[in-house]
Amino acid sequence: MLQGPLAGRLRALLFSLLLPSAVAAQPSAPTAAPDSTLGAVTVTAAREAVATREAASRVTVLGRDALDAAGATTVADALEARTAVFVKRYGPGGLASLSLRGTGAAQTLVLLDGHRIADPQLGQLDLGLLPAGVVEAVEVAHGAASALYGTDGVGGVVQVRTPAPGEPRARLDLRTGAWGERGGALLLSGGSARLSAVLALDHDEATGDYLYVDSTRFDPATQTVGVTAPRANADVQRDALFGRVSSEIGRWRGTAGLLATDAERGIFAFSGVSQARQTDRALRVWTDHALRLGGTRVRVGGLAQRSSLRYLSPASGLDETGQTEAASLRIEADRAVRLGSGRWHLAAGVEARGGRAEHPSLTEDAQETAQAVFASAVGQHGPLHLYPALRLDRVAAPTGETLTALSPQAGVNLHVVRRLWLKASAGRAFRAPTFNDRFWMPGGDPALRPERGWTADAGAAAEAHLGPLAATAEATVFASALADQIVWRPGRFDDGFYWAPQNIGQTRTRGAELSARLRLGTARRFAEVGGLMTWTDARDRTDPEASSFDQRLLYVPARLVRADLALGAGPLRLDAGLEHTGTRATAADGTARLPPATVVDAGLSGRLRVGPAAAVLAVRLENLLDARYALVRQYPMPPRHVRVRLTLSSL
Fold first, then answer.
1. What's the pTM value of the predicted model, to 2 decimals?
2. Which of 49, 66, 268, 280 could join 62 via S-S bond, C-beta 3.0 to 4.6 A?
3. pLDDT for 452-466, tens place per residue?
4. Cα angle at 34 between 31 and 40, to 5 degrees?
5. Would you give the DSSP letter of residue 82?
6. 147 within 8 A of 256, measured Cβ to Cβ
7. What stretches in the chain show pLDDT beneath 70?
8. Domain positions in the chain
């Protein structure tokens, strides 16, 4: 059990105040509106609000309805159910990292309300630690994003948007399931026109001790290899506290937010029994302000975060804690102008950030500072939208090493006919080395170069409306080539034999994405079906003499298929989902692979409204066909099981 002060306070608040708060707020249910799997507006693709169909590249937006329909309890759940992101899961309570268009977890940027939140030591974020209870929407922008956001924007951007304060509302979720799963989330919001606030709490825990087959053990009773046993030391407990305040006075608007997360989990071992534990804690605070000065808008925003990761292994005598701190500040001005026959929205600004890390295996000078200048524009000339952007980044370490990266990008969107849009974009992207790459002892190299490359995509988006029938579809092809990729390899050096990072990797990726959604009916009676399919051919092009040359990159599925179905009739709703993950290479030379996995889920929910309040009871059957599979080798996923959720919310 967690013993930290945050965990104790959250559990006390969540379970002693949940029901009284919910009743007092007269909660009601979510509406039966269609899932916003293809959202109408994105704020990620151009750093400005634009319609997804008018963006230069593919964008997927998951609203609150889509998160609920997918039964998501974390951001990782939502991404793997309704987007083209492959979530690399080390079991249901373990690390959940992402892969987009063949890139690794450190090559896709994760934003929280526009601010980067990845751990500077690891260069990635565990999406299983971000609870869906404190999330209003998730956006996925595909393709190069370094011209807009800087480092890590190689495969794309995942932006997590938190609930905005506003009209008085309340929402309560209570959930339970198999293998000790139970949790809840509470959200309260309200205020006046000048000042409003929102508060959310989330708690989740599970033992995770379902049965699996240990294929490394010999069963003397049956004289065969393979022993069925419960997963040991696979428990997890997560807590989160979120708050946000917004104000608007005259021409000024401002907001400030806080997100604190606390998680403890066991480290499951496929063979044998592990006693290792891991504790993750993070505190993030951010603020954003906008002021109108005539026709110019000035925006200032920043985020500060502190995180810690403790690894405890009694068997090996290890008890190590790593701590990281990071802060960023951005100042930007934008203005709408007319240039000839076109309307343009011009933006330019500067950004500064810094970070430091402490860990027994890092050097004492594990820190860096970074500065950037950037400019972007959104132009419209009749049916033509243009999206040019340019950014210059400089990253410096205290040892004197400095790296620079210039990232240009251009995009175009042409509204061909009434319901058809053509898209294309190309840009240069980069990823700076992480603290582990530069400062790990032994092996870290402060002189490492950033990973660099070009990405491009082209596609078409279409929509149709005919009475109660609405349909959308989008098709995209993409390609990328990356060089100077950082690869850790063993070697003999003057001070010994150990693993060390080197700028030697080269990759080439080609692929295609196809998505469609069809809805028929009204808000009370409807049928909706949607799905997506991706094909990704990501290959190693580093060394023609190596056995790994031209082999598929590790854990990048060749095919990914996801589909969902929703049927609504008055207060009843039926949801079903399918996820098919193609083969994934587990050896660099292509000699070992994980087989394809297909998982089907289904759920039934009923809604009861009483005046301004209502309740939704949902029963969801996960892994309906009882597939036995793993997304990562030796980390088996759960067999068939049931989840039950009760949701109360106010209008």
1. 0.91
2. 66
3. 999 999 999 999 999
4. 115
5. H
6. no
7. 1-39, 651
8. 5-227+238-298+326-500+512-650
